[in-house]
Structures are given as C-alpha cells and as structure tokens.
Write a structure and sequence with these properties.
With 261 residues, this protein is α/β, with parallel strands linked by helices. It folds into two domains: 171 residues, P-loop containing nucleotide triphosphate hydrolases (Rossmann fold), CATH 3.40.50; 78 residues, no CATH class. The strands form two sheets. It has a six-stranded mixed β-sheet, sandwiched between helices. Strand 4 and strand 5 form a beta hairpin.
Length: 261
Amino acid sequence: MEPILRVDGVSKKFGGLMALSDVSFDVARGRILGLIGPNGAGKTTMFNCVAGLYRPTEGTLVFRPGDRGREVQGLKPEKMTALGVARTFQNIRLFSSLTVLDNVRIGRHCRTSSNFFGAVLRTRSQRAEERRIIDDAMSWLDFVGLGASALQPAASLAYGDQRRLEIARALATDPKLLLLDEPAAGMNPKETEALVDLIHAILAKDVTVVLIEHDMKLVMRICEHLVVLDHGVKIAEGGPAAIRENPEVIEAYLGKGAAHA
C-alpha cells in the first residue's frame, strides 16, 4: 500500500541555519509514527513543512489521502487543511475567551459551503448548515470526553482537557493525517493514559497519526515506527526495539560516549 505521506529529501534553511537536511521517510497509512529527537532536532520544523507553515528549501512532500497523491510542498496551511492534514501545537493555541464548543465549531467551518451573503442574510440553507456544524462539533467533543464542558470557556478547562480540546478542533476538520506536537506535555499519568486510549480511538476512525513526543515510555508503547532526527538530520529509523538499542540514538539523547558506556 502506498504511504499516505512521502517525505523525500526535504531540507529547510533559515538564513545560514540548516534546520532540516535531506530528510526522507514514509508515513504508512493507518499507523502511528513517532518523530523523535532531542530539543532543536528539527521535529517541529518538519511538522511546519508538512502543514504548510513553511515551504521546504529543497525536496518534495507527496500527500496521498485517497487513491491519488500529489506534491504539496509550499501549499498554504488552509489548502493543506482542505486536503486532509490537521495539526496541534506544542504550545496550546485555543481561543481562551470562547466556549469549548465554539473552539471546535471554528475548526469545523473549513468544511462549510455557505458564502458571505448566506451568512449575512441567514438563509435557510445557512441555518441548517450551522446546526450541522454544532452537531458535528458536539460529536467530536463527546469523542474526546468533553461534551459536558461544551458551554464552558476554554480557559476554564484543566491543562490536560485543553490538550484534548485542541485535538477535537483538529479532528473537526475531517483529517486523514493528524500531526500531534507533544500531546502529552504537562499531563499527569492518568491524563497520559487517557491520551493513549484517545490516540488509538482516532486511529480506528481511519486517521493516520504522526506525533512528536518527549515521553519515551509513551512513544515506545504506542508508535509502530519511529524516525529520529538530530540537528536536522535523520540518524535512525525503525521499530521501537531497534531504536531503543541504536547507538546513534543513545548518543544523541545522552551525549557522546553514552552508547559505549
């Protein structure tokens, strides 16, 4: 089966800084891939290239949400969202003063068809579509366990619930590929366990997941394939067992000489 995403020789340069250098890997459809590495390795830069926030300096990105693939490097974020790529951020980005429900409704609006005049005139079709948006948003809130909090301000949620709200908003765009940037950051063990269940439930909805995460116990537990970056270069790729024992990975995380200690 063709991968849902093919990263081929991607480099990203900022002035004199090479944030990514000739990185290649495939994301298998219907799987969980972990993109790991120490701080400054280039992981979030790669996410930004895939999501359309950055245009790669070199290389290609081929996204295949269905039977046909296309090169997507350089497409704007809204176009990538429309194609089926959604992401969350390392630093939570919610509309804190809006309700939990409204945050998810905003995510859902990328799948609406009403035009400006329909919204202004409040036509019958526009009102019906708005009801569908609310229903869909509530469905995703129930899915992540936040249905009872729908009318609360987003800022009132506990930290772990804010993480889940951001995931619900991303899911409301109907993605085929979901990029999770450190979803377990700041979570306690109980919240992390709930996150594991949620990611598996997302996978069951035919959504492929790529995650950046520093919690290695979580990564080794749920990821079927790992790609390791260090200083913008891919240093290893493979299953959790192979990555755990890889000398270059050990050195990157623990320092020179650690792999031979």
